[in-house]
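User: Predict the structure for this protein chain, please.
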Amino acid sequence: MPPKSDRFKQAELAKIHIAKKELGLDDATYRAMLKQVAGVESSKDLSAQGRALVLEHLKKAGFQGKHPGKPHNLTSQSPRAAKLGKIEALLADGKLPWAYAVAIAGRMYGKERLEFCSDDELTGVITALVKDQKKRKAPHPGHLPEGEGEKQ
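Assistant: Here is the predicted structure, written as structure tokens:
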């Protein structure tokens, strides 16, 4: 197995190439960006600092990755998959990132990741998201429903 630093380097390079594809950069534009940001013409020549600079630049350009924070090792055959599906739906409805659900699990149960939550803890996260959803959809105090309060 390669040393940890080599695996980390390969992971960062893979992320750079995923960002290139996601942002739709052609080869000439990509190489010009590498030259401007890190002073190299190929990603294989990037130092650790150069990789960090390029990734930061790509994030500022709009790269987010597919679903940051989404649990990766839970399959649809997992008994908890239905609960994670519900969490995903609630997050999507509220236009919230996976990190929001992870933060709830951290606050409520001291868990760093959703993968570490028990079934009961996942139910608690769902309950918190449902309550949050109701709060976000509730009218604000002093706000009149549409059409009320208008002069006729």
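Helices lie at 4-23, 27-38, 48-60, 81-93, 98-109, 119-137.
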